[in-house]
Structures are given as C-alpha cells and as structure tokens.
C-alpha cells in the first residue's frame, strides 16, 4: 500500500484500507448503524471481510489511486472506521462516504477525516464537485455533511434499490 497517498490530521492517520484492516471492516459492516443505514453486505467473518476489501475496495484504489481509507487514531493506533471517495458506477461523479465503529462516534473524528478527504479530492485528485448520499433517517450524517459545507440537492435512487436517498453536493471554492 506504499504506492498510494495516506493523509494525516492533528489526531488521525488516513491510510488506504488493506486486508490487514479486515477485523475492523468485519466489525464495522456488522455494526447496528451500518446495517440500518447502509445495508447488510453479507460479511459474516474476518475472512469474508478480507474478500470484501480485495474485491470491493482495492480495485478502485488500484484504478484511480484513491478510494477507501481506514481512519486510525494517532494516540493509540485504534482503527476507528472508514472515510473515502467512491467512484460508484451507478452515480455520476465522486461520492464521499464515511462510517465509524460505535465507540468512536460523536467525538469529531468523522468531521476531521471527511474534511481532509474532501481537501484531497479537490486539491490533490483534482475534482471540482463531490457528492454524498445518505438515508433520510440518518440525521447524524446529514448534519455532518452540512457542517462540511454540502448543500442538499434533492433525492436520488440507486439502481436495484427501493430507498430514496438524500443527495448532497459540494463544489470546490
């Protein structure tokens, strides 16, 4: 993973997710909020999490040079969650996404990591506009997106999905 950019903030390291993060990914993808707001990815073991990383996360990193980042707290090296820019085939443009293990929520880590990833998206990877989607019930994500400067632009629906999602957009200043 040395060929890809990692990022730092005052409290965090954001490094490209690798198979060494499988335990945290397994826990995250089976956490209550992930299951409620994102959905069951059928990752029911650490081995399945490694497979998920290899086949769902790493291909974009290898293709574009960015993607999913594991968020690590500097003070104790705790792997807390993920944040990244996703090139979803069912959406036009990049999508900012984030999720954290319950123990690390509501401490400012999501804002700190997402702000750094947005900065990279605009200033390093050269994008002028970034999207974000969230469930209508996920008010915590909505508040974070608004705090980051995203504007609500209506709703969208992903192919093969029935849920109507809120679509947020932020443009480079």
Automatic annotation (TrEMBL):
<dbReference type="InterPro" id="IPR051531">
    <property type="entry name" value="N-acetyltransferase"/>
</dbReference>
<dbReference type="InterPro" id="IPR016181">
    <property type="entry name" value="Acyl_CoA_acyltransferase"/>
</dbReference>
<dbReference type="InterPro" id="IPR000182">
    <property type="entry name" value="GNAT_dom"/>
</dbReference>
<feature type="domain" description="N-acetyltransferase">
    <location>
        <begin position="12"/>
        <end position="173"/>
    </location>
</feature>
<protein>
    <submittedName>
        <fullName>GNAT family N-acetyltransferase</fullName>
    </submittedName>
</protein>
<dbReference type="GO" id="GO:0016747">
    <property type="term" value="F:acyltransferase activity, transferring groups other than amino-acyl groups"/>
</dbReference>
<dbReference type="Pfam" id="PF13302">
    <property type="entry name" value="Acetyltransf_3"/>
</dbReference>
């Amino acid at each position: 993973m040395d060929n890809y950019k990692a990022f730092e903030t005052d409290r965090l390291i954001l490094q490209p997710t690798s198979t060494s993060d499988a335990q945290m990914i397994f826990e995250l993808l089976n956490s209550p909020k992930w299951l409620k707001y994102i959905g069951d990815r059928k990752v029911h073991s650490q081995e399945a999490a490694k497979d998920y990383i290899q086949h769902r996360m790493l291909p974009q990193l290898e293709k574009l040079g960015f993607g999913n980042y594991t968020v690590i707290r500097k003070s104790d090296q705790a792997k807390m969650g993920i944040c990244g820019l996703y090139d979803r085939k069912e959406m036009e443009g990049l999508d900012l996404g984030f999720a954290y293990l319950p123990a690390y929520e509501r401490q400012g880590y999501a804002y700190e990591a997402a702000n750094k990833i947005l900065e990279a998206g605009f200033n390093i990877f050269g994008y002028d506009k970034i999207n974000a989607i969230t469930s209508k019930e996920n008010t915590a994500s909505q508040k974070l997106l608004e705090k980051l400067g995203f504007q609500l632009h209506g709703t969208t629906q992903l192919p093969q999905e029935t849920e109507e999602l809120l679509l947020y957009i932020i443009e480079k200043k």
